[in-house]
Amino acid sequence: MAQLIDGKLLSAQIRSEVKADVEKRVQLGKRAPFLTVVLIGEDPASASYVKAKAAASAEVGIGSDTLRFESSISESEVLALLARLNEDPNVDGILVQLPLPSHIDEQKVINAIAPTKDVDCFHPESVGNLVIGMDGFQPATPAGIVEMLRRSNIPTAGKHCVIIGRSNIVGKPLANLMLKKGIDSTVTVCHSRTPNLPEIARQADILVAAIGRAHFVTADMVKEGAVVIDVGINRIDDPTKERGYRLVGDVDFEAVSKKASFITPVPGGVGPMTIAVLLQNTLKASR
Ligand code: BQF
Protein backbone atom coordinates (compact mmCIF):
# COMPACT_ATOMS: atom_id res chain seq x y z
CA MET A 1 0.00 0.00 0.00
CA ALA A 2 1.40 3.37 -1.00
CA GLN A 3 2.24 6.13 1.41
CA LEU A 4 0.20 9.28 0.83
CA ILE A 5 2.08 12.49 0.05
CA ASP A 6 0.02 15.12 1.84
CA GLY A 7 0.05 18.28 -0.25
CA LYS A 8 -2.12 20.11 2.24
CA LEU A 9 0.41 19.52 5.00
CA LEU A 10 3.52 20.25 2.91
CA SER A 11 1.97 23.40 1.43
CA ALA A 12 1.09 24.60 4.93
CA GLN A 13 4.79 24.31 5.84
CA ILE A 14 5.74 26.42 2.81
CA ARG A 15 3.04 28.97 3.58
CA SER A 16 4.31 29.37 7.14
CA GLU A 17 7.86 29.87 5.82
CA VAL A 18 6.63 32.55 3.41
CA LYS A 19 4.59 34.15 6.19
CA ALA A 20 7.66 34.38 8.44
CA ASP A 21 9.69 35.99 5.62
CA VAL A 22 6.92 38.47 4.86
CA GLU A 23 6.73 39.43 8.56
CA LYS A 24 10.50 40.00 8.62
CA ARG A 25 10.24 42.32 5.62
CA VAL A 26 7.42 44.28 7.18
CA GLN A 27 9.34 44.57 10.47
CA LEU A 28 12.21 46.09 8.50
CA GLY A 29 9.78 48.81 7.40
CA LYS A 30 9.26 47.52 3.87
CA ARG A 31 5.78 47.19 2.44
CA ALA A 32 4.17 43.75 2.13
CA PRO A 33 4.53 41.95 -1.21
CA PHE A 34 1.59 42.60 -3.54
CA LEU A 35 0.03 40.36 -6.19
CA THR A 36 -2.40 41.52 -8.87
CA VAL A 37 -4.55 38.78 -10.40
CA VAL A 38 -6.39 39.39 -13.68
CA LEU A 39 -9.50 37.27 -14.21
CA ILE A 40 -11.35 37.47 -17.53
CA GLY A 41 -14.76 35.85 -18.05
CA GLU A 42 -16.78 33.66 -15.74
CA ASP A 43 -15.33 30.17 -15.96
CA PRO A 44 -16.27 28.69 -12.54
CA ALA A 45 -13.03 26.70 -12.19
CA SER A 46 -10.95 29.83 -12.90
CA ALA A 47 -13.02 31.79 -10.38
CA SER A 48 -12.34 29.17 -7.70
CA TYR A 49 -8.58 29.10 -8.42
CA VAL A 50 -8.42 32.90 -8.20
CA LYS A 51 -10.29 32.83 -4.89
CA ALA A 52 -7.85 30.24 -3.54
CA LYS A 53 -4.90 32.43 -4.56
CA ALA A 54 -6.33 35.55 -2.91
CA ALA A 55 -7.14 33.65 0.30
CA ALA A 56 -3.67 32.08 0.47
CA SER A 57 -2.03 35.46 -0.13
CA ALA A 58 -4.02 37.04 2.70
CA GLU A 59 -3.13 34.18 5.03
CA VAL A 60 0.63 34.82 4.65
CA GLY A 61 0.41 38.63 4.69
CA ILE A 62 0.76 39.16 0.94
CA GLY A 63 -1.54 41.87 -0.37
CA SER A 64 -3.58 41.04 -3.43
CA ASP A 65 -6.20 42.42 -5.73
CA THR A 66 -8.27 40.52 -8.28
CA LEU A 67 -9.22 42.60 -11.34
CA ARG A 68 -12.30 41.02 -12.95
CA PHE A 69 -13.38 41.68 -16.53
CA GLU A 70 -16.17 40.44 -18.77
CA SER A 71 -15.13 38.02 -21.48
CA SER A 72 -15.95 40.74 -24.05
CA ILE A 73 -12.85 42.77 -23.05
CA SER A 74 -10.60 43.33 -26.09
CA GLU A 75 -7.05 42.07 -26.39
CA SER A 76 -5.74 45.63 -26.68
CA GLU A 77 -7.49 46.61 -23.45
CA VAL A 78 -5.79 43.71 -21.67
CA LEU A 79 -2.41 44.72 -23.11
CA ALA A 80 -2.96 48.32 -21.98
CA LEU A 81 -3.88 47.13 -18.49
CA LEU A 82 -0.70 45.04 -18.28
CA ALA A 83 1.40 48.00 -19.41
CA ARG A 84 -0.01 49.96 -16.47
CA LEU A 85 0.56 47.15 -13.98
CA ASN A 86 4.12 46.70 -15.23
CA GLU A 87 4.78 50.37 -14.39
CA ASP A 88 2.99 50.32 -11.04
CA PRO A 89 5.64 50.31 -8.27
CA ASN A 90 3.09 48.94 -5.77
CA VAL A 91 2.53 45.77 -7.81
CA ASP A 92 5.20 43.09 -7.36
CA GLY A 93 3.58 40.14 -9.11
CA ILE A 94 1.14 39.95 -12.03
CA LEU A 95 -0.86 36.83 -12.78
CA VAL A 96 -3.30 36.50 -15.68
CA GLN A 97 -5.59 33.55 -14.95
CA LEU A 98 -5.71 31.16 -17.92
CA PRO A 99 -7.45 30.11 -20.09
CA LEU A 100 -8.45 33.35 -21.85
CA PRO A 101 -11.45 33.82 -24.16
CA SER A 102 -10.64 32.62 -27.68
CA HIS A 103 -10.54 36.13 -29.23
CA ILE A 104 -7.53 36.97 -27.05
CA ASP A 105 -4.09 35.65 -28.01
CA GLU A 106 -2.75 34.06 -24.82
CA GLN A 107 0.89 34.23 -25.86
CA LYS A 108 0.59 37.93 -26.72
CA VAL A 109 -0.79 38.58 -23.25
CA ILE A 110 1.91 36.53 -21.53
CA ASN A 111 4.59 38.35 -23.54
CA ALA A 112 3.21 41.67 -22.25
CA ILE A 113 3.92 40.85 -18.58
CA ALA A 114 7.21 42.32 -17.32
CA PRO A 115 9.55 39.35 -16.67
CA THR A 116 10.39 40.87 -13.24
CA LYS A 117 6.70 40.48 -12.27
CA ASP A 118 6.05 37.16 -14.01
CA VAL A 119 5.11 35.07 -10.95
CA ASP A 120 3.58 32.31 -13.12
CA CYS A 121 6.94 31.93 -14.94
CA PHE A 122 5.18 31.81 -18.32
CA HIS A 123 7.02 34.67 -20.10
CA PRO A 124 9.52 33.45 -22.75
CA GLU A 125 12.36 35.09 -20.80
CA SER A 126 11.34 33.21 -17.63
CA VAL A 127 11.00 29.96 -19.59
CA GLY A 128 14.42 30.51 -21.17
CA ASN A 129 15.99 31.01 -17.74
CA LEU A 130 14.36 27.81 -16.55
CA VAL A 131 15.65 25.82 -19.53
CA ILE A 132 19.25 26.96 -19.01
CA GLY A 133 19.01 26.39 -15.24
CA MET A 134 19.33 30.03 -14.12
CA ASP A 135 17.46 30.90 -10.98
CA GLY A 136 14.42 33.10 -11.16
CA PHE A 137 10.74 32.49 -10.79
CA GLN A 138 9.72 28.84 -10.55
CA PRO A 139 6.87 27.39 -12.61
CA ALA A 140 4.30 26.86 -9.83
CA THR A 141 2.97 23.36 -10.46
CA PRO A 142 6.33 21.81 -11.49
CA ALA A 143 8.16 23.42 -8.57
CA GLY A 144 5.35 22.30 -6.27
CA ILE A 145 5.92 18.73 -7.43
CA VAL A 146 9.68 18.94 -6.89
CA GLU A 147 9.08 20.36 -3.39
CA MET A 148 6.75 17.44 -2.60
CA LEU A 149 9.46 14.97 -3.59
CA ARG A 150 12.17 16.85 -1.70
CA ARG A 151 10.15 17.29 1.50
CA SER A 152 9.16 13.58 1.37
CA ASN A 153 12.85 12.55 1.06
CA ILE A 154 12.18 10.84 -2.27
CA PRO A 155 15.43 10.56 -4.25
CA THR A 156 15.40 11.93 -7.81
CA ALA A 157 19.03 11.61 -8.94
CA GLY A 158 19.40 8.99 -11.65
CA LYS A 159 15.73 8.07 -11.43
CA HIS A 160 13.61 7.70 -14.55
CA CYS A 161 10.87 10.31 -14.43
CA VAL A 162 8.13 9.72 -16.99
CA ILE A 163 5.82 12.69 -17.52
CA ILE A 164 2.51 12.12 -19.29
CA GLY A 165 1.48 15.46 -20.81
CA ARG A 166 3.44 18.11 -22.73
CA SER A 167 1.70 21.36 -21.77
CA ASN A 168 3.58 24.63 -21.40
CA ILE A 169 2.22 24.87 -17.85
CA VAL A 170 3.15 21.44 -16.47
CA GLY A 171 4.79 18.83 -18.73
CA LYS A 172 7.44 20.92 -20.49
CA PRO A 173 8.59 23.02 -17.51
CA LEU A 174 8.55 19.96 -15.23
CA ALA A 175 10.80 18.09 -17.67
CA ASN A 176 13.26 20.98 -17.44
CA LEU A 177 13.16 21.09 -13.63
CA MET A 178 13.66 17.33 -13.27
CA LEU A 179 16.72 17.59 -15.55
CA LYS A 180 18.24 20.40 -13.50
CA LYS A 181 21.62 19.93 -11.82
CA GLY A 182 20.92 18.77 -8.28
CA ILE A 183 17.67 17.04 -9.24
CA ASP A 184 19.33 14.91 -11.91
CA SER A 185 16.51 12.69 -13.14
CA THR A 186 16.41 11.05 -16.55
CA VAL A 187 13.26 12.36 -18.19
CA THR A 188 10.82 10.99 -20.73
CA VAL A 189 7.81 13.04 -21.85
CA CYS A 190 4.83 11.15 -23.31
CA HIS A 191 1.67 12.61 -24.81
CA SER A 192 -1.52 11.78 -26.67
CA ARG A 193 0.39 10.73 -29.81
CA THR A 194 2.85 8.42 -28.04
CA PRO A 195 2.08 4.93 -29.39
CA ASN A 196 3.47 2.72 -26.61
CA LEU A 197 2.63 4.96 -23.67
CA PRO A 198 1.71 2.21 -21.14
CA GLU A 199 5.00 0.44 -21.84
CA ILE A 200 7.01 3.64 -21.24
CA ALA A 201 4.99 4.54 -18.14
CA ARG A 202 5.84 1.13 -16.66
CA GLN A 203 9.54 2.07 -16.83
CA ALA A 204 9.01 5.08 -14.55
CA ASP A 205 10.50 5.32 -11.08
CA ILE A 206 8.60 8.60 -10.81
CA LEU A 207 5.42 8.80 -12.89
CA VAL A 208 3.71 12.16 -13.34
CA ALA A 209 0.20 12.26 -14.77
CA ALA A 210 -0.68 15.62 -16.31
CA ILE A 211 -2.98 14.75 -19.21
CA GLY A 212 -6.27 16.12 -17.95
CA ARG A 213 -8.24 12.89 -18.37
CA ALA A 214 -9.94 11.34 -15.36
CA HIS A 215 -8.49 7.96 -14.32
CA PHE A 216 -6.17 7.77 -17.37
CA VAL A 217 -3.34 6.07 -15.47
CA THR A 218 -4.38 2.54 -14.56
CA ALA A 219 -2.53 -0.01 -12.40
CA ASP A 220 -1.13 -1.88 -15.42
CA MET A 221 0.80 1.29 -16.38
CA VAL A 222 2.64 1.49 -13.04
CA LYS A 223 5.76 -0.37 -11.91
CA GLU A 224 5.63 -1.93 -8.44
CA GLY A 225 7.10 0.62 -6.00
CA ALA A 226 6.91 3.63 -8.34
CA VAL A 227 6.23 7.15 -7.04
CA VAL A 228 3.03 8.46 -8.64
CA ILE A 229 2.27 12.18 -8.86
CA ASP A 230 -1.24 13.11 -9.97
CA VAL A 231 -1.55 16.60 -11.45
CA GLY A 232 -5.06 16.12 -12.86
CA ILE A 233 -8.01 18.11 -11.58
CA ASN A 234 -11.07 16.74 -13.34
CA ARG A 235 -14.63 17.58 -12.36
CA ILE A 236 -16.93 14.62 -12.62
CA ASP A 237 -20.68 14.65 -11.95
CA ASP A 238 -21.61 13.46 -8.47
CA PRO A 239 -25.24 14.00 -7.48
CA THR A 240 -24.45 12.95 -3.88
CA LYS A 241 -22.39 16.16 -3.51
CA GLU A 242 -24.03 19.46 -2.71
CA ARG A 243 -22.23 21.25 -5.58
CA GLY A 244 -23.10 18.40 -8.00
CA TYR A 245 -19.54 17.28 -8.83
CA ARG A 246 -16.35 15.98 -7.28
CA LEU A 247 -12.68 16.35 -8.21
CA VAL A 248 -10.72 13.36 -9.43
CA GLY A 249 -7.18 13.11 -10.73
CA ASP A 250 -5.65 11.59 -13.87
CA VAL A 251 -4.79 8.46 -11.87
CA ASP A 252 -7.03 5.55 -10.91
CA PHE A 253 -6.11 6.14 -7.26
CA GLU A 254 -7.89 3.10 -5.85
CA ALA A 255 -5.98 0.56 -7.95
CA VAL A 256 -2.67 2.43 -8.39
CA SER A 257 -2.21 3.08 -4.67
CA LYS A 258 -1.86 -0.69 -4.19
CA LYS A 259 1.23 -0.76 -6.43
CA ALA A 260 2.91 2.60 -5.84
CA SER A 261 5.34 3.33 -2.99
CA PHE A 262 4.14 6.95 -2.75
CA ILE A 263 1.11 8.61 -4.30
CA THR A 264 -0.46 12.07 -4.23
CA PRO A 265 -4.21 12.46 -3.64
CA VAL A 266 -6.67 14.67 -5.52
CA PRO A 267 -7.76 16.97 -4.02
CA GLY A 268 -5.12 17.89 -1.46
CA GLY A 269 -2.07 16.83 -3.46
CA VAL A 270 -0.32 18.92 -6.11
CA GLY A 271 -3.00 21.67 -6.17
CA PRO A 272 -2.17 23.25 -2.81
CA MET A 273 1.57 23.05 -3.62
CA THR A 274 0.94 25.09 -6.79
CA ILE A 275 -0.58 27.87 -4.71
CA ALA A 276 2.27 27.74 -2.17
CA VAL A 277 4.91 28.21 -4.90
CA LEU A 278 2.94 31.17 -6.27
CA LEU A 279 3.30 32.80 -2.84
CA GLN A 280 7.05 32.07 -2.83
CA ASN A 281 7.32 33.67 -6.27
CA THR A 282 5.38 36.76 -5.17
CA LEU A 283 7.71 37.16 -2.19
CA LYS A 284 10.67 36.76 -4.56
CA ALA A 285 9.19 39.40 -6.89
CA SER A 286 9.12 41.91 -4.02
CA ARG A 287 12.86 41.52 -3.43
C1 BQF B 1 -6.61 20.85 -4.10
C2 BQF B 1 -5.44 24.81 -12.71
C3 BQF B 1 -6.03 23.47 -14.61
C4 BQF B 1 -6.12 24.62 -15.41
C5 BQF B 1 -5.85 25.86 -14.87
C6 BQF B 1 -5.92 23.24 -4.40
C7 BQF B 1 -5.99 24.27 -6.56
C8 BQF B 1 -6.52 23.11 -7.09
C9 BQF B 1 -6.71 22.00 -6.29
C10 BQF B 1 -5.73 25.46 -7.42
C11 BQF B 1 -5.10 24.98 -11.30
C12 BQF B 1 -5.01 23.81 -10.39
C13 BQF B 1 -4.93 26.27 -10.80
C14 BQF B 1 -6.43 22.06 -4.95
C15 BQF B 1 -4.65 26.53 -9.35
C16 BQF B 1 -4.37 24.16 -9.06
O1 BQF B 1 -6.85 20.98 -2.89
O2 BQF B 1 -6.45 19.75 -4.63
C17 BQF B 1 -5.70 24.33 -5.21
O3 BQF B 1 -6.25 26.50 -7.10
N1 BQF B 1 -4.94 25.38 -8.55
C18 BQF B 1 -5.02 27.37 -11.70
O4 BQF B 1 -4.85 28.51 -11.30
O5 BQF B 1 -5.29 27.17 -12.99
C19 BQF B 1 -5.52 25.95 -13.52
C20 BQF B 1 -5.69 23.57 -13.27
List the helices and strands and how they pair.
Elements lengths: L2 E2 L2 H21 L6 E7 L3 H17 L2 E7 L5 H13 L5 E4 L9 H6 L12 H8 L8 H12 L8 E5 L6 H9 L6 E5 L6 H5 L4 E4 L17 E4 L3 E4 L7 E4 L4 H4 L5 E2 L6 H16 L2
Parallel strand pairs: 1-11, 2-3, 2-4, 5-6, 5-7, 7-8, 8-11
Antiparallel strand pairs: 9-10
The structure holds ligand BQF.
Explain this structure to me?
- The chain has helices at residues 7-27, 44-60, 75-87, 106-111, 124-131, 140-151, 171-179, 197-201, 253-256, 270-285; strands at 3-4, 34-40, 63-69, 93-96, 160-164, 186-190, 206-209, 227-230, 234-237, 245-248, 262-263.
- Helix 2 links the parallel strand 2 (34-40) and strand 3.
- A six-stranded parallel beta sheet has the order 1-11-8-7-5-6. A three-stranded parallel beta sheet has the order 3-2-4, sandwiched between helices. A two-stranded antiparallel sheet has the order 9-10.
- It has two domains: 32-114, Rossmann fold (3-Layer(aba) Sandwich); 140-271, NAD(P)-binding Rossmann-like Domain (Rossmann fold), CATH 3.40.50.
- The longest helix has 21 residues, at 7-27.
- It is globular, with a radius of gyration of 19 Å.
- The chain has 287 residues and is α/β, with parallel strands linked by helices.
